[in-house]
Amino acid sequence: MTQSVPPEPPAQERPITRRPLFWLIIAIVLLLLVIAILVGMAMGSTNDPDPTAPPSGPPTPTSSPTPTSSPTPSDGPTPSDEATPTPAGAQIPSDCADIYTRDLTAEFDGLVLNPAWTLEPGSGVRRGSKDEVAVALLESTAELTCSWANPRGGSDRGLTTDVARVDPDEAAGTLEHFASAGFTCYEELEGTRCVIESAPSPDGKSGESHFIRDGVWIATWWVNAGPDGYTHDIVAALFG
């Protein structure tokens, strides 16, 4: 005998877990959750910086510090206030005998160094130049004057050398003046030398030699006297 199967109750009377719509909704919710998680992970991996990548640039400061100026000391001159020092150059001795490397008396043939009459006021002994511009400067800059003269008084033979200290501007101006005044100027012995000589006459010859190096000026005027190498010997004595 065949048993009869009880009829299926209506859907609204079934338990909710046995309703197909319930599981469909659950499946949709789970799918949406999975999609949301995947999207969130993708966005997070895009926004997070790669720890191995170099920084794209320095951070922008929120404010710039105001530099503070260092106070200028008031107890000393600034470098711009200090005058350019004059080259020290050679030491100028106080004794004329020390401007030569040897005794030149024999080579001056009867003239002697600084005879007494040349040291008297109004002796008429010239400076180491006849040029008015050079004489004016020598009056204020010469530290030593050495004269080779006749021991009995003035004659037609003699030589005077001034050793002066000049600053760079004075040295440059003096050399420019000599060049424009007809002197022959040339580089020699690490300095500059300017010379001039008169034409021979019944009275003989005269001339001048000016040597400037490192702020030292050797000015020599001569008439019918002066051994060869005279200025060279002074340079050797003063500069070594």
Automatic annotation (TrEMBL):
Keywords: Membrane, Transmembrane, Transmembrane helix. Residues 48-94 are annotated as: Disordered. The chain crosses the membrane at residues 21-43. Residues 51-76 have a biased composition (Pro residues). This is DUF3558 domain-containing protein. The lineage of its organism: Bacteria, Bacillati, Actinomycetota, Actinomycetes, Micrococcales.
